[in-house]
């Protein structure tokens, strides 16, 4: 019996780790304080397990109690971990400086984007001084086919890999239009050839997304720089913004 129990311990620990990650992911998706009973229901986990995990995370300041309704949300330790990551990561630090310059110089919303699972997320953003401002909130997961960045972030994959990677439902745009998978794959190939990508009226009918890849040593796009501008922007401005994006992303890429 002792040997059997010992062999089960790693699986039990792993289950606890999985539950902890699930709880944090649930809060990230909800982006609002939530009751533990609601989180347990969303996770499909026993309430006792979720309460035990949450209490330990509260002790570690990873979560904190909010209000008087038994709700929890991210605690100050999460902010400290995030700041430590951003300050210690050379690429992210350089990207922040690049976003500041791009947004200020061109009076346009500049964003740093990357893959998270099978979705696209904005990692960091800067608003320009122009009147037109539309952004995706940092950390919100967006279907890859809706964005210019999504096409670049997949450009190391084969057509069959792309079909297997992108959920079929993600080809449905917010306005109900359905993107053709074959056309999307052609867009990905074109983005790879041109080293840049522009999409218009996909996630929003009134915007264009301009993107350039930041690549690692293997040539894989690990992130993108992008501008979000009005869909009716003059071609001269589009070209100017794209050229600066490509030059800046190339400087940020690991070419050694």
TrEMBL record:
InterPro entries: GAF-like_dom_sf, HTH_MetabolicPath_Reg, Tscrpt_reg_IclR_C, Tscrpt_reg_IclR_N, WH-like_DNA-bd_sf, WH_DNA-bd_sf. Residues 14-76 form the HTH iclR-type domain. GO terms for biological process: negative regulation of DNA-templated transcription. GO terms for molecular function: DNA binding; DNA-binding transcription factor activity. SUPFAM superfamilies: GAF domain-like, Winged helix' DNA-binding domain. This is Transcriptional regulator. Pfam families: HTH_IclR (PF09339), IclR_C (PF01614). Keywords: DNA-binding, Transcription, Transcription regulation. It comes from Bradyrhizobium neotropicale. The keyword Zinc does not apply. Transmembrane segments: none annotated. The keyword Methyltransferase does not apply. Residues 77-256 form the IclR-ED domain.
């Amino acid at each position: 019996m002792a040997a059997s129990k010992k062999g089960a311990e790693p699986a039990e620990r792993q289950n606890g780790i999985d539950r902890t990650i699930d709880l944090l992911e649930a809060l990230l998706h909800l982006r609002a304080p939530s009751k533990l009973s609601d989180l347990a229901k969303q996770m499909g986990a026993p309430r006792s397990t979720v309460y035990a995990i949450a209490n330990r995370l509260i002790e570690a300041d990873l979560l904190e109690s909010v209000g008087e309704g038994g709700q929890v949300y991210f605690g100050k330790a999460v902010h400290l971990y995030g700041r430590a990551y951003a300050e210690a990561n050379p690429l992210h630090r350089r990207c922040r400086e690049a976003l500041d310059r791009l947004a200020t110089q061109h009076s346009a919303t500049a964003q740093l984007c990357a893959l998270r699972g099978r979705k696209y997320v904005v990692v960091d953003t800067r608003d320009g001084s122009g009147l037109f401002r539309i952004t995706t909130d940092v950390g919100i997961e967006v279907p890859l086919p809706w964005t210019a960045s999504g096409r670049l972030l997949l450009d190391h994959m084969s057509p069959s890999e792309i079909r297997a990677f992108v959920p079929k439902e993600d080809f449905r745009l917010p306005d109900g239009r359905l993107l053709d998978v074959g056309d999307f794959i052609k867009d990905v190939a074109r983005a790879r050839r041109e080293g840049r990508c522009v999409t218009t009226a996909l996630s929003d009918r009134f915007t264009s997304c301009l993107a350039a890849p930041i690549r690692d040593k293997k040539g894989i796009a690990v992130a993108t720089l992008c501008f979000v501008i009005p869909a009716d922007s003059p071609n001269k401005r589009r070209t100017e913004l794209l050229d600066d994006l490509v030059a800046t992303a190339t400087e940020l890429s690991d070419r050694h």
